[in-house]
Amino acid sequence: MFEKLSRRLHFGHFPTPLERLDRLSAYLNGPTVWIKRDDCTGLSLGGNKTRKLEFIMPRAIESGADTIITCGALQSNHARQTSAIAAKLGLNCYLLLRENPLVVNPDFRHGGNLLLDAIHDARIIRCSGDTDLAVELEKLAASLKEKGMKPFVIPGGGSDLFGTLGYVNAAIELSSQAHAAGVNFVDVILATGSGGTHAGLVAGFCLLGRAVPVRGISVGPTRADIEPAVFALATAAAHHVGPPCSVARSKIVVDDSYLGGGYGVVNDAVVEAVQLVARLEGILLDPVYTGKAMSGLIALIRAGRYKKSDHVVFIHTGGAPALFPYEAEMVASHHV
Ligand SMILES: *Cc1c(COP(=O)(O)O)cnc(C)c1O
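Above are the sequence and the pyridoxal-5'-phosphate SMILES. Below is the predicted complex in structure-token form.
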């Protein structure tokens, strides 16, 4: 349908399932909640970065790179999926991973995604919490070039134009699944971090001519900081894919009411969301992204935002490997 979406590698398991969460919907006594299982993309325990990397990696290969460099938080899911695809493609991988001063639990500094990065043989460079990762990425690239290597830099979260195309594709996939299931979603809910996932979905629905509202729940940035970034990426992606479709600024909605203590900090609402979905549906969310986004969806349902006859879909963007370093928080209180 959209020719520009064909320049990609195929290593994920697609389409990911679209499932109905009957027990969660009944428990909340609200709309019918569906879940799009992008935690099941197949690459090293899955997650949303797999779709992005399918579109980013062809550029790395064309550039003649022998080394991939990217960055993130110590427990970055993006870094883990990048280390996996680098391994599969026979490329070296360097990860610049930043401490998170907001997280006091020392377990955060090992295990979880860090263990998986090491198993994939990524070289991990730890940085202090105040490091400007974009600047350090360029410095690292320059120093590897001096050593005769050919590095390719992927920005944090894989949120560049090509990464965003992965979620244009996801919007097309989700639309056809919704059509096949005979449902119209009144909201698509997801965790918004660096913004590429959100932007790609908005651009995809715009290109399809479908007015599906997308509501991002911020996991860190403020609304004022992230909405313009999502808008810029969505506009660029819609323009790149064509035929022309202009994304309205008003269609970019990021709700920053559920941040709690900030990025990576779990609160009772996040623990409740993770436990509810695990105990009612047998599905693992994560403490940093999907647990926080689901805490937002639960709060919106409890506040009466939806009718019982409505259908909403939650994008499960992955992240469960980070449950392990958050063990202390996750089992501290019981909600169900
Ligand atoms: C990276 C990530 C997100 C956020 O996606 P962005 O495109 O960076 O906004 C959401 N959930 C999980 C589990 C992630 O790893």
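Strands lie at 18-20, 32-37, 67-73, 92-98, 123-127, 151-153, 187-192, 214-218, 253-255, 311-316.
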